TrEMBL record:
<dbReference type="InterPro" id="IPR000212">
    <property type="entry name" value="DNA_helicase_UvrD/REP"/>
</dbReference>
<dbReference type="GO" id="GO:0005524">
    <property type="term" value="F:ATP binding"/>
</dbReference>
<keyword id="KW-0547">Nucleotide-binding</keyword>
<dbReference type="Pfam" id="PF13538">
    <property type="entry name" value="UvrD_C_2"/>
</dbReference>
<feature type="region of interest" description="Disordered">
    <location>
        <begin position="199"/>
        <end position="223"/>
    </location>
</feature>
<dbReference type="InterPro" id="IPR027417">
    <property type="entry name" value="P-loop_NTPase"/>
</dbReference>
<feature type="domain" description="UvrD-like helicase C-terminal">
    <location>
        <begin position="135"/>
        <end position="183"/>
    </location>
</feature>
<keyword id="KW-0067">ATP-binding</keyword>
<protein>
    <submittedName>
        <fullName>ATP-binding domain-containing protein</fullName>
    </submittedName>
</protein>
<dbReference type="InterPro" id="IPR027785">
    <property type="entry name" value="UvrD-like_helicase_C"/>
</dbReference>
Amino acid sequence: MTILGDANQSVNPLSSSSLPVIRDIFPDADCLELCRSYRSTSEITDFAQHISRNDKLILAERHGLPPQVRAAADRRAHDKQILALVERHRQSDYRSLGIICKTVAQAEQLHRTLAAEGIDLAFLDYESTEFSAGAVITSAHIAKGLEFDTVIVPHVDDTNYATEMDKGMLYIACTRAMHELHLTHVGPPSRFLAFTKEPGSNPAAATTGTAEIPARGTRTPVG
């Protein structure tokens, strides 16, 4: 039997199992910690480290666009930002896109909004039996274990992401991104993104719904 997990991706921090706990349950088991991260660029991994710190993490040196945190004036401007980001992804060299909301209900609502604008996305909920490549919209909980070239995390305001459990959801959503990460919000950003306002912070932050979106991405070689 093999048990594989990531404590930093715990949805409920009060009920997760750590390596010491597993060792207590299986005292004769061989335990190995995998500390090197290969999925995301250094910029995305560093961003996620500010949300939930893992001091044992070893970064694979692969660079790309800094994560983008974008404020919108209202809900309509927010949805327009997401539409622009989806179109930007379509014009890029990347294949997979994940729009990762905090909950399934939020993902379903945004899916309807984007579908009305002609955006074709696969909606994943707890009843989904297949995962299709391409553009997907789902919740952070369902996205655990998945990865995408580009990730958009909507509604990262301080009301939506406020508790310790929310912090875990935000961390999971951000770490699904391999090459590009975009976060959007209306109103004050989550307290877990306060570091983006600090002097010398790497993440790029746009403060209006009409801010220019960076030039389209190109795939960055690994290695």
